[in-house]
Amino acid sequence: MTSIVLGQGRDGSDTCIDLPELLATRLLVQGNSGSGKSHLLRRLLEQTATLVQQVMIDPEGDFVTLADHYGHLVIDVEDQSEASLRAAGERVRAHRASVVLNLEQVEAEMQLRAAGAFLNGMFEAPRAHWYPALVVVDEAQLFAPVASGDTSDEARRLSLGAMTNLMCRGRKRGLAGVIATQRLAKLAKNVAAEASNFLMGRTFLDIDMARAADLLGMERRAAESFRDLARGQFMALGPALSRRPKLVAIGPVTTASHATGPVLVPLEPVSAEDLRDIILEPVHEFTPRARRETRPPPPDLLAQLDAYGAEREAEEPAPAAISVEADPDQLWSLVAEVVAGDGSDYKPLATLYQDFQLRARIQGLSRNVLELGSFNRMLATIRAGMDRERSESEQWKQAQTVAATLPEDVQGVFLLLARTALDAETCPDDDALARAYGTHSLGRARRQLNYLEEREVIVLQDTPLGRRVAIVGLGWQTA
């Protein structure tokens, strides 16, 4: 058994925590501000630093000092995008790096988005990289709140979903969640309920004491004992700690936080007159410079082409009652050029549509010659590998009818599967699915197959020779 000494019990004996059991059963730490939660987490991280990979979600920058003693990589999120953080999460698992995700310099909205993206990247890592890792989240009530707050619903859902995956589904992927919170009442119940080990510190609110007593299996009248706990004392319970509630005083630590607690400092004797001169010293106000006249930005290229076309029409009026429709072959060729562009698989639909409009105007067509929905369907059809003639067949029109019932972001995946099944070819691999979905994440692309099966448009079958997909209602099946 690999165990570490967490602290001392009431009788002075060592209280240990079984690390393999902790990795399998997760840990919840609760205590009011000043109860010693950060000290406890630091003790746990220091004692296990050489035994298991560690990932620390640090909203206050308290744990960046681990890098000086134990070589942790500190990731400052202020200059990182969500995509780069998601990729960093996958790479952390691949290289088994111990990291501290420092969220100190960003506002609450970005903290939720950054933590959610990073945790999702770790969660979506390939199976070959599912090494055991201790994922410690301080102030977990910020990332898994029981109710919405000042942040947007989108950021809250992203962070809450990542925390739920960590605590509910992380064990099979080697992710052991250790979450610490000031108030259990503010932490989402489906996140807290997945922990089997508990360390409950000092707390004063009745609702938090009652919930802590319920988690430890203590009687309600014994809940008031949480008010009497000293700083650094916790009631421990769980398969990795103790089979019965046990008092433990957390041991010393080697590192320290940059932030220090309040310390009384004697006041220096200064006369009131001197203070008046210092505090009420006149502020020199500078006259602001006159603003330069701002010129309007030049119109974009599409606007310039439209303006040029309007001038030509004014100078050379077109014959009345003549309407020229765009050639379908010409439209197909223009969309095919967009598909063939560099990096088009991962560009947003709006960017690709603007590229098409520009090409259409250069050819003398109206920029709105093909509306966005029709463009998206033609784009997905070309990406699926269909040619112009076959795209007009009755069979393919049936596939497009089914695709029209799906969200736009998965229509390309479905049409790729439909074309492959129509030609009885081998089922597309994960890379092809990812390109069709417009993502670099293979795990996210694989999940679209399960989504399409839930929508009852495909039947998914895993065989010894690989994956097979059948299209519901059309009778097509991949090899």
UniProtKB/TrEMBL annotation:
Q: Which SUPFAM superfamilies match?
A: P-loop containing nucleoside triphosphate hydrolases (SSF52540)
The lineage's top-level taxon is: Bacteria
Which protein, by its recorded name, is this? ATP-binding protein
Q: Which residues form the Helicase HerA central domain?
A: 10-72
One family name in Pfam for this protein: DUF87
Q: Does the keyword DNA damage apply?
A: no
Keywords attached to this Swiss-Prot or TrEMBL record, sorted alphabetically, are: ATP-binding, Nucleotide-binding
Give this protein's Gene Ontology molecular function annotations.
ATP binding
Q: Which organism is it from?
A: Gluconobacter cerevisiae
